[in-house]
Amino acid sequence: MTMSVLKRMALTFLAAVLALTWARSGRAQADCIGERGQDLLDVLSVGVRHNVWLVLDTSGSMGEPFQSGGASKLDTAKVVIGDLLNQLVDSSQQPLVNWGFVHFDRNPQNVPACSDPFEVQCQGLRSSSLINPPACGGPDNREQILDKLGLAQANGWTPNGKSLDQVSTEIQNNFLPGLLLNQQNFVIILTDGDDTCECSDNAWDEDLSGVETTLPVFLRSQSGSSSPTQDVTTPDDRRAYNAGLKGQLAYTRLNPSLSDRASAEKGDVFVVGLGLADASKARANHLAWEASGIAFRPDARPAFFADNAAQLNQALRDIFANIGLPAAEVTLSASVVGSVKEVVVSHTNTTQGLTNADLLASGSGDTQVRSLRVSHRNNVLFTTSVETPGFAGHLRAFNTFQVQADETRAADFTQLWDAGEVLRDREMSVDPRRIFYNLPDGTGAQLSSTLGTTSLAPSDLGVAAGFLSDFDPTGIGAKTDVDAVEMVEKIIQGWRLVVDPTNGFYQADGITLNFSELEADGTRTWKLLDATNSAPAVALNPPRSPDADPPQPAAEYQTFFDEQINRMTVVYLGTNGGMLHAFRADNGYEIYGYIPHDLLTKLPNLVRNIVADNNGVSNHEFFVASSATLEDAFLQDAPSGNPEWRTVLAFGRGPGGKFLTALDVTAVGEWDGTNSLAVPAGFQPPELLFTVGNRDGVVDLDPNGESYDGLGETW
């Protein structure tokens, strides 16, 4: 989904993006500030934008068509780049990155004597075509880029290595010193062939010293693997090896310190191969591995490939999603205050002498305890925020006051918990998550939490064998339909699918999918995604008094009140992790998640983004992007079959779809006087009352056969 089609969201921000300015002389100073009420993804894109240079191969072979025919590779690249520049924008049509552009010069073929690997007769890049990214707040330069792009012609040879050498020198000299906080420099080189300007006789030592070596040297190219397994023997391989050295040099220039290089902290390089045969793909992979820092970090990458316009468009979008946004955290939506009896004793340092036993006193007759609870009304503030890139979500709870002996309040905004951190630290193999779902026919179940088992059918998700094959080093992806289902179910729960360069997604036995609770760096996986446009909703014990103007029918409400007086206070939050979450209000523990049927077929796209580490602005998936509403309601036909009072939660999807769901969330379980990280005693899963809506103009029927084709987006 591009920013040009995102709906403007009604957001209230408690924190603004800090004003940041360029420090380097010769660059215009301009504040980069987010405005209240802006579209979330607009706010995440204003201020600090990454610098991105497109380096275009204009060698003679770019004038030829792809193997499938049609327009030339150069003309195809021109159209795709032009579309990309105009599509990767926010809703005010401003680009999401600071674009730069340069293309190859007309280079003669040259096979030098290799006395110096970095001095060859090929010109490399055409300096007159260079357009550097603008400063923060500087003028939009896309028209200039499109003008230069239109004038580019296909002629000459292919100096991939020298071009990376030159553009990285430009960045090192003029853009590295002035990087803003969290800003990075990126290079995307689009090429259709092997380097024809590098040394074809000798290979050079990887220390970049230029000293000839007789030691064996290798290309990192076989099967897209980063392992150096192919001995350099042919002239094409030797040129590719030496081009790779310049790619490695480019990476070190973009990342000057060892700590920078270990994580691509200040910049990165992407390689896109156009219409390449297998042998050339292998050599392009080598250039990509070296230029993305395989000598310094484990998460370097092979090249992206395209054999037509659609694949090139997708490759560039995948790269853009990798680039993402500068690291930041933005406060989302409206904050909510709620009354949480469970934190009165443990967090407010009350001097009223309250105890857990006092707060557990139940029944409508205990007016003293009820009065004490009232004095602590609205004692917790709940806020949400999102981190970029990656869209990690936070739901935080803050104490708002301390109650004094005279029952007056003193402000106290101590953070009580962060549900994102609590969920991250949860050991799923010991304490598995409970994620429920419903199917279109109203039946439902819980996602299997046991590795090697599944709950959903392939048709429920729309997946099959081969799922994620484009991200699998072996090119296989899921070996069976059931494996594809397990990939979706487990990744949605927070497991990481381990990608091994030899075994792909499987363990050494080649049969068992390889999941881990840990990231590659040993930290636990982050499981809570962003709550865009979704504010928290708090369900506490029934708030209406049964003996002072009770709601009707009063007798049934009295029963409801007495039964639910000590139920757990719960915070509900919809997120773009695919579900609605229910958290304990005292400690942030996730009691359960719930996925309505209309979101099941959207989950594979989210899983693709997570596995590819591509959960960015340009392809962001929306799920439950609308605030839930909670009410106690008298249902003539409650799930029990009897007329009775129940607590009903209703939520829409926002930009996530044209559906509305209502759940019975009455029996969440009782608070036992402790703040344990566990499901409360007596917990029962939510019961579906209804889901109504329509999917992209296709009428869905509710269980009674009624259609809701006129229902629009539910915000």
Describe this structure in words.
The chain is α+β, with helices and mostly antiparallel strands. The protein is built from 16 helices and 28 strands. The strands form eight sheets. A six-stranded mixed beta sheet has the order 17-16-23-22-21-20, with helices on one face. It has a five-stranded parallel beta sheet with strand order 4-1-5-8-9, sandwiched between helices. The relative contact order is 0.09. The model is unreliable at 1-38 and 205-211 (pLDDT under 50).
List its salient traits:
single chain, 715 residues, alpha+beta, six-stranded mixed beta sheet, five-stranded parallel beta sheet
Main β-sheet, in a few words?
A: 6 strands, mixed
Instruction: Name the helicity range.
Output: 10-25%
Sheet with most strands: strand arrangement: 17-16-23-22-21-20
Q: Overall 3D geometry?
A: elongated
What is this structure's SSE topology?
Layout (H helix, E strand, L loop, with lengths): L39 H6 L5 E6 L8 E2 L2 E4 H15 L10 E6 L38 H10 L8 H15 L10 E7 L26 E2 L10 E2 L3 H20 L3 H6 L3 E8 L3 H14 L12 E3 L2 H15 L4 E11 L5 H4 L8 H5 L6 H9 L4 E9 L3 E8 L1 E3 L5 E3 L3 E4 H7 L9 E4 L5 E3 L11 H4 L19 H13 L2 E2 L17 E2 L20 E3 L14 H11 L5 E5 L5 E5 L5 E6 L7 H9 L17 E7 L8 E8 L6 E7 L22 E9 L2 E2 L16
Parallel strand pairs: 1-4, 1-5, 5-8, 8-9, 16-23
Antiparallel strand pairs: 2-3, 6-7, 10-11, 11-12, 12-15, 13-14, 16-17, 18-19, 20-21, 21-22, 22-23, 24-25, 25-26, 26-27, 27-28
